[in-house]
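From the pipeline queue, job 12 of 40. The input is one protein chain; the requested action is below.

Action: predict structure.
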Amino acid sequence: MAHIGFLLTKSPVRFRFDETLYHLSLALLKAGHTVSAFLFLDGIYVAVQPQINSEISLLQKSRIEELIGKGVSFLACGTCADEPEVDQAFVTGIKSGSLSDFADLLGEVDRLISL
């Protein structure tokens, strides 16, 4: 089966590409594919623990945790999360990485979907 990668660059506050990532990842996993995601620019905020007890942020956190539990690997750009309060607030299971890690991911995946 294929290894599919995602590049998520948009904020979950203004855009709901995290929903697309969630549903596509579930479908790909069900079909037997391997899934990885690199969170870049404002996409890193998908990985941050909810600061406000809102329905959207709690749903987002539970879906990310579900995907991690099903084997999706997440890397968040550490440079984009340069503020300590952001980097330390990542959902458990999301690793901080760099653009060289993204380059490595590009070499590993069969297809990359940019959201």
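Job complete. The two ends are 22 Å apart (CA to CA).
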